[in-house]
Amino acid sequence: MSDTVILSEGAEFDHVIQEVSKYINLYVMAFEKNERAITQMDKRLNMYGGKGTVYMLQMFDQKELANNRLAAYMVLLNKGDESGFHTHNQRNEQELYVVVHGTGEYRERTGVEGSIRKKTLKKGDITAISSIGYHSIENTGDEPLIMFVITTNNP
Predict the structure, then answer these.
(1) Domain of 75: which CATH number?
(2) How many domains does the chain have?
(3) For residues 47 and 109, is the Cβ–Cβ distance under 8 A?
(4) Which of 45, 92, 108, 143 is the most buried (most CB within 10 A)?
(5) Could you report the average pLDDT of every consecutive run of 10 residues in the chain (155 residues)?
(6) Rounded-to-integer distance, Cα 44 and Cα 105, Å
(7) What is the DSSP letter of 144?
(8) Residues 77, 61, 126: CA angle, nearest 5 degrees
(9) Three-state secondary-structure class, residue 86
(10) What is the DSSP string of 4-24?
(11) What does pTM read for this prediction?
(12) DSSP 3-state assignment of 129?
């Protein structure tokens, strides 16, 4: 698992916002609402047994989108930051990763011990992750790796 800290202010929060804002506009407009910034930032240390720090920037709140996981930015700021292998099988979720900036190595496998398939991802690449699959992502470049994550929820 990982340790999760919710960041709402301070130097680290400001740093992440500043870095991400170099590459994307962090303002959204939910249906029938005014334009605004993110609703929450989660800092996940060693996410799913990975290395470093993953930041999850929630763009919408639960009332705006199903499960509050339909839209979020996953940001791996530093080279080597990684989300370790994990599955969304228990929640029957599927994910799409849309790379907005940076370079990373995407890995997937079937089951806990399956053979690993790897793909280098760069800006514009999209991956589809099955709820039964295991997957991980690592920032392998020198720039921040910023991905838009779309997660379905089908209980």
Answers:
(1) 2.60.120.10
(2) 1
(3) no
(4) 108
(5) 77 92 87 84 93 90 64 84 88 85 95 92 93 91 93 71
(6) 19
(7) P
(8) 45
(9) strand
(10) EEEE-SSHHHHHHHHHHHTTS
(11) 0.87
(12) strand
